[in-house]
Amino acid sequence: MIGHNTLVVLLGCAALGAASGIVGCFALLRGRALLADAIGHAALPGVVAASLIMAALGGPARSLAPLLLGAALSAWLGLLALRALTASGRIRQDAGIGVVLSAFYALGTVGLSVAQTLPGAAQAGLSHFILGQAATMTENDALLAGGLALACLAVIAALFQPLRALCFDEAFARSQGVPVRALDLVLLGLLLAVCVAGLPAVGLLLVVALLIVPAAAARLVTQGLPAMLAVAGSLGAAAGATGALVSVRFAQIPTGAAVVLAGLCGFGAAVAISRRAAR
Amino acid sequence: MKAPFSCRGLTVGYGGRPALSDVTWDATPGLTAILGPNGAGKSTLLKAALRLIPAEAGEVRFFGEALEAARPRIAYLPQRASVDWDFPASALDIVAMARLPRMRWWGSVPRREREAARAALASVGLEDFADRQIGRLSGGQQQRVFLARALAQEADLFLMDEPLAAVDAVTEQTILAVLHGLAREGKSVLMVHHDLSLITAHFDEVLILAGRVVAAGPVREAFTEASIATAFGGLPGRAPVEAPA
């Protein structure tokens, strides 16, 4: 009933969903969830630039790794720009995210339209980075997503205690000599990795939802952090798999939208459960 | 003996306007209340000493040592309102955070550290609330969770930021009893406090601030109407809550 290709896409998206659900919990509790939106949008110029460079060098047109590398570099530049903007304290985080996100996205859109006027296959599939298209996911891409999910889990398990202390009470953690800056950098690295890995499948517009929706739903129905991580990871995986399945069956539905809608069903259920529990 | 807490010329500014200027003061073992009106720099003194905020000038030493060397001997109790009490954790989870420097970073909290945290919760009367989610505790119980976390650090010097602010009578009695217990063990407590009524009955020393040191020393000598008037009169519209004895 489910072919090999579909199974690959399904498992790849489930792994991505699990990783972003888990990383999203820490992003949410640390108050950094919206950074995912900045990262997603800031990645676009890098994707376009990488594809143009590859075309100029005569490299393979459909190779994901260089595109993701470009995305990661560009998103990192976006985060540096955000830090520079907000350093003085006169521009707050929300306004800074708005500026960086729109500036990089505009730059990427201009680059994309330029790339589309060029001959050759350079621009092929680039628009999928905006809305997401999981159907083109190869076995290697799915393995990459699975490896990433395992790596995120390993990092979070290794640093679980100090990460939890940091998210609850930064001042107390620092007073104990916990390396707060290094831990924040690790969290940011995880956020960046998950966002960039999710771009081809979910798209830059909706990758933020993959991080926030499962974590927010899990927070509504759990009392402790380990349970929250388990629920968010499972919900993310279920949403990824469901969304992938829907978009493979109905090719006109972009994967990103299908994944997010599936996740929102879980979120709605969490709201209902927490309301009942509160009564 | 080296003073548990000693600062020399400590100056802290928020964007140019100094919140604290040139504070030079040595604490003595026992219970010290840090008093002053809002904006006097009471919390700022603790935060700058722990380098949670940068100081423009000056030096702070703990038991004669720099902060890094003295960290294991220092416990910090931030203001209750500084954290999100909806955080997904139980009272025991929070208190166990005090044991972070003594435990591995991966996996769950080891049994030994969990027992230490449980004992600290018991000493503030919350042994039956160990597994309760912190958002379901009353404000006073949350404040006692913070006190238990500081106790579980097993420190010699306790820096406490307004632990008696807006708490119920049971919590106030519990906290005062714990403070006296610490003093009997020879520990030192520096406590930011807003209410003048408890000073003479419970504290050994006061440090009165109003952006600078107004008065410091044993309660009988430094906690005078004159020093209170100077501190609280220095900022318009702020009168003492209650006149000192």
User: What is the architecture of chain A at the second tier of CATH?
Assistant: Orthogonal Bundle
Which value, in Å, is the CA radius of gyration of chain A?
Answer: 19 Å
Distance between the termini of chain A: 43 Å
Low-confidence runs of chain B (pLDDT<50, min 5 residues)? 235-245
Mean pLDDT of chain A: 90
The major β-sheet of chain B equals:
6 strands, mixed
The rough form of chain B would be described as globular
Q: Could you name the CATH homologous superfamily of chain B?
A: P-loop containing nucleotide triphosphate hydrolases
What does this structure look like?
- The complex is a heterodimer of chains A (279) and B (245).
- Chain A has one domain (4-123, 136-278): Orthogonal Bundle (ABC transporter involved in vitamin B12 uptake, BtuC), CATH 1.10.3470.10.
- Helices cover 80% and strands 0% of the residues of chain A.
- Chain A is built from 13 helices and no strands.
- The model of chain A has no long low-confidence stretch (mean pLDDT 90).
- Chain B has 245 residues and is of the alpha/beta class.
- Chain B has a single domain, classed as Rossmann fold (3-Layer(aba) Sandwich).
- Chain B has 9 helices and 9 strands.
- At the A-B interface, α8, α9 and α12 of A face loops of B.
Task: Looking at this protein, list some descriptive labels.
heterodimer; A: 279 residues; mainly alpha; ABC transporter involved in vitamin B12 uptake, BtuC; B: alpha/beta; Rossmann fold; six-stranded mixed beta sheet; disordered C terminus
What's the quick description here?
The complex is a heterodimer of chains A (279) and B (245). Chain A has 279 residues and is mainly alpha-helical. Chain A has helices at 4-29, 35-42, 44-57, 64-86, 93-117, 128-131, 139-158, 160-168, 170-175, 180-202, 207-221, 225-249, 255-278.
